[in-house]
Protein 1
Amino acid sequence: MSDLTRRPGGPPSRRARERRAYQLAVTGGVAGLVAVVGGVLAIAGVLGWGLPLIAVVVAAVCFFLFRRTVS
């Protein structure tokens, strides 16, 4: 036992989990807002459906990663 430093592969600290959950919540919220506004603009014919679709996918991924982080 000559090296008593912690290995980097261990579970993340509580602070790291909180930071990750916060970043996922903010990113997912912004992506959801972009999806809603983009959807309204796409219905109005101002914008195509590409951006709102990508935003929905990003928001869904953030939601599932958030749930996994806090559980």
Protein 2
Amino acid sequence: MLDLIGVIALMFFTLALIRTIMAHRLRNKILSKEPPPDVTARILQPESARSRALASLKWALVLIGVGLGVGFGQFAPSHMKDNMTLAGIFVFAGLGYLIYYLIALRAAEGE
């Protein structure tokens, strides 16, 4: 079990590192082409506290959904446990994304 957690953590770390490097390269390429000032300002503008909070909320809801899906699978009959766990993960993670979308939509209307 600990090996699986280590592999998953390593995968997430690697993906986060690759994403950060690629975003940095893309930002530098865009800025080297001398875009209009409003585009430059948007690229260089730091993330707002509101957008960071919404991003954290999104991942919290998705991970709660994954946890609920795993818990849901534990109550299934033993011959269906694996399938029900996987289905529960997808359903509850999807519900987490849906709840996030509705909250983000309401937050965007309030701006």
Protein 3
Amino acid sequence: MFKKGLSESPKRIRPGLVSHILLQSGDTSSANLAIAWVIVEPGSAQQPHNHVPEQAYVVVEGQGRIKVGSEIADVKAGDLVYVPSNAEHAVENLGTERLVYVSVAVPALDIEAMYDTGQLKR
């Protein structure tokens, strides 16, 4: 069994955004899944980016806007957004409360490296 909580997970902090890396490539013997718990403060956004793994965002709290390719959708708690492989995507918090979502990527990617190499700056 692999278990990791928010308090013990590696974090990547950008202005207005904190990613708690719960599971990523190298954490287990499988390279099938990566999961992050992401908090976006009001008025903040995630930098548009793309990557090979497919991804899904499950909004846990708050509201915002997600762009996938040329499509834009307003989202709220309980919504899921699917991101195909290599599609440019980004998240923006348009509300007055924080936006919290769980990001799941398949196959696993090295989330820490994505932040550290500058692919995810915001």
